[in-house]
Amino acid sequence: MPSRASVKSSNNLSLAVAQKETQEVCIGPIAKLAWKGLDSSAPFAAVKLSGRAPVVLIDKRVQTLWADAIKASPLFKEAAEKNQMLFLPIGEASKTLPTVETTLRSLARMGVTRNDNFVVAVGGGALLDSAGFIASVYHRGLPLVHVPTTLLAMVDATLGGKTSVNFLGNKNQVGSFYLPALSIIDPEFLETLSPDHLRNGLIETVKMAFLVGTKELDAVSELIADVLAGDKDAAEHIIQQGLRIKSKYISEDMYEDMSDGKTDKTKRCHLNLGHTTGHAMEAIYGGRITHGDAVGSGMLVAAEVARELGMLGKGTDTALTSALAACGFMLPQVQDPAHLAHLLWGSIGTDKKVKGGRVVFVLPLAPGKVEMAPVGMETFTAAALRVFGN
Length: 390
Ligand SMILES: NC(=O)c1ccc[n+]([C@@H]2O[C@H](COP(=O)([O-])OP(=O)(O)OC[C@H]3O[C@@H](n4cnc5c(N)ncnc54)[C@H](O)[C@@H]3O)[C@@H](O)[C@H]2O)c1
Description:
Blueprint: E1 12-18, E2 21-27, H1 38-41, H2 43-49, E3 53-59, H3 60-65, H4 67-72, H5 77-81, E4 85-88, H6 97-109, E5 117-123, H7 125-137, E6 144-148, H8 151-157, E7 162-167, E8 170-177, E9 182-185, H9 195-212, H10 214-228, H11 232-250, H12 265-269, H13 275-285, H14 291-308, H15 316-327, H16 337-351, E10 358-366, E11 369-376, H17 377-388
Parallel strand pairs: 2-9, 3-4, 3-5, 5-6, 6-9
Antiparallel strand pairs: 1-2, 7-8, 10-11
Helix pairs in contact: 6-7, 7-8, 8-9, 8-11, 9-10, 9-11, 9-14, 9-15, 10-11, 10-15, 13-14, 13-16, 14-15, 14-17, 16-17
């Protein structure tokens, strides 16, 4: 891995994730970062981790692809030398209770304790979710560090402390809220990421930027081609912007309990823009559609729903379509759009709360302006036909 300049102080973020909690983030090359140097860049994490030894839980594919860089990094040297590294199944396969149990057994066999160790989770969003859950339950919680290796994990999954595994066929059904003390983000990892997974992260950043406004959407759109061309500075920019936006959305209500009666419940739900239809697309297409393309399709359907309701701002569809196109977004080829619309509505109905035959959608009215509205089957079908019928 080519070495880059050492971490600049501006690359260290301290982001609000809950009303009284912050999560520290260091963006820089793993080749140059060391646990000992954290005091100035991540002072809270440094205190939490001090005197403890790292135990590394890593996605097997990432370990295979990045073995040399990991061996050479001061962050992983000690764990590698002491055999304190566990390799978890690739991607989503790590988010299972059997993997959790196997890993807990290994931690116990290795004599890992709460006072002596911390967990370093290295991988995409799936690995972070699973390893985070393991860290949260072993000895009632070991300090946790994330090293996200996909763009989606860097801009999204690493922030906010949601951990989970899939259970009984349901995604993320078992989990906890457990904040990492620190996220270490090295955009260099993106070099080996597949185009599909890069697109997943880019489409997520487009969604976040759209929520904030035209300026942010334009800024992200301008950087996308550079990120796709492998420009790490552009990637770092996009990651920082995505993290800042997510932080704003979750910090008032990290635990999603909304129980104080004062918190604006709708704001956090805005992060689900495109996900209502997107999840249904993933359920119907299975592995034949990427998460990014499913969410992108979902955003376009939501925009058409807004049009049906007379709420879509002028130029919004063009702004969304061109930002998505820049990411390489692909709308699936649909033989029978009416049948797909029917299946989608059925799937949304089993996933979401349906009240009086309507489902609440997040609607993109204009960059920086989204609204939640209950939507009936006819409106949804008309919107879906416009998106998938061409
Ligand atoms: N906790 C949260 O807030 C949150 C937010 C968003 C998504 N998620 C979860 O994240 C998961 C999706 O994350 P993802 O898109 O990162 O997928 P992923 O973790 O499944 O990784 C995708 C694939 O890329 C591989 N990979 C990882 N890093 C790589 C690299 N640098 N080079 C080459 N290959 C690499 C993995 O082995 C895997 O095969 C889902 O399970 C989702 O539920 C969680």
